[in-house]
Amino acid sequence: MARINLLPWREKERRRRQRDFFIATGAALAAVLLLAVGVRLQIESMISAQEARNAMLEQEIRKLDLRIKKIEKLEQTKADLISRMNVIQQLQESRPEIVHLFDELVSSIPEGVFLTSVDQTGSKVEVEGRAQSNARVSAFMRNINASAWITDPQLLVIENKDQTGTGLSHFRLSFKQQRVSADAEPEIGLISPPERRLVGEA
Known about the structure:
Layout (H helix, E strand, L loop, with lengths): L6 H102 L4 E9 L2 E8 L2 H13 L3 E10 L1 H4 L4 E9 L25
Antiparallel strand pairs: 1-2, 2-4, 3-4
């Protein structure tokens, strides 16, 4: 019976399988490397695109910040202008009030009373003066209460003439200036010298 030696064929087949394995492994490694390179390039492309978008957004944000600063500056300028307009309007409204204040004050001073000082803080007015008697001071306060432009008199200090050594009572009182509507505003009359006493008149 003839014998066939299969060892050379098996060795050759084993080598072929090893070669095919190495080739397949190399191909797989190459495919993985290519895939990794492709993924990396894709990621870098996405990062570059995102960075470009971020740069564009930052540029737009800077533009918006400049616009916001301009708007804030305009708002501040507007607020300053409104504040100045309000001050001017208040000054225009209060300009005739000082005329009414002094007119009503002089009109309210009775005979035998004269003032030495007048001090105003806001709507509050404080006066100091001399009077021939305490009754004259009371009459002065009644006249203030009856006035349309000044009201709420309050006696702060009074010294009888026997205490002052001047033969006159010294007093200090306060009252408030009030606004009168245009419809109810009385006309300012002429001051009659015999019936009124100016500030500081003896």
